[in-house]
Write a sequence for this structure.
């Protein structure tokens, strides 16, 4: 394994100012990468740059991920850059609610942020030949991209879509040196977790990882420089396997425990 793998690599990070994005950025910056940090808030991007140090080495791009055309801002700003070696998509929106309480805007925004913005950007980067010959496209999904968890309805739908997109794209690029990595973390302690989500995780005894721990695992997977589809968490891997071959077992579990989840919903 190459310990200098990230040295001087040009890496674009979508959702760089989220809890996971920040930790990934810190590690990659220390390992000598040149980062293009994409987020929705200029102040947060500036603070992240200050945290990383070496202000001239990294740059920021502000976009609105809910706007399906804003990916063009990234394309325009990359027109004079060297080609991207790695792209990491960590950006996400999440809501836990009865489907009847999900608004049309909730659905549109989660799909735009979690999947459409990523597809549009990756497609445009490929079309304009902005990736290096042997680039890595890293999509951060979720265990909920293979497991329909009650009340995470739209979020699950977007992560299922991201998994399918990643699998299809990986096969599409299989006759090139470009690689797709899909990583499915379990619950992460970030600002995506509302009080409702935190209470449900406690009630259901779901393991919640720190962003730093997940970032370190993601970096370890990326360093292998292979097309991989990887879940994080031994228990979660077993649950996902059971769900894929004997889903009725998981159905029965939720049927018995649905009341524990419902009591935390408003």
């Amino acid at each position: 394994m190459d310990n200098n793998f990230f040295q001087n690599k040009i890496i674009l990070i979508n959702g760089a100012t989220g809890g996971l994005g920040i930790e990934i950025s810190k590690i990659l910056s220390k390992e000598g990468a040149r980062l293009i940090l994409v987020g929705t808030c200029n102040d947060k991007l500036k603070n992240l740059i200050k945290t990383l140090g070496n202000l001239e080495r990294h740059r920021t791009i502000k976009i609105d991920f809910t706007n399906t055309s804003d990916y063009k801002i990234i394309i325009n700003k990359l027109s004079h850059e060297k080609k991207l070696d790695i792209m990491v998509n960590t950006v996400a929106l999440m809501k836990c609610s009865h489907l009847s309480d999900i608004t049309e805007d909730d659905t549109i925004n989660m799909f735009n942020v979690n999947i459409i913005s990523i597809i549009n950007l990756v497609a445009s980067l490929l079309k304009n030949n902005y990736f290096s010959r042997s680039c890595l496209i890293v999509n951060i999904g979720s265990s909920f991209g293979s497991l329909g968890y009650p009340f995470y309805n739209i979020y699950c739908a977007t992560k299922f879509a991201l998994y399918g997109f990643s699998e299809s794209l990986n096969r599409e690029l299989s006759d090139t040196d470009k690689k797709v990595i899909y990583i499915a973390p379990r619950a992460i302690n970030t600002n995506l977790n509302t009080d409702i989500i935190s209470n449900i995780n406690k009630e259901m005894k779901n393991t919640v990882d720190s962003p730093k721990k997940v970032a370190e695992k993601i970096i370890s997977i990326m360093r292998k420089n292979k097309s991989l589809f990887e879940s994080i968490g031994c228990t979660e891997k077993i649950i996902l396997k059971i769900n894929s071959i004997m889903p009725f077992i998981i159905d029965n579990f939720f049927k018995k425990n649905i009341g524990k989840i419902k009591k935390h919903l408003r």
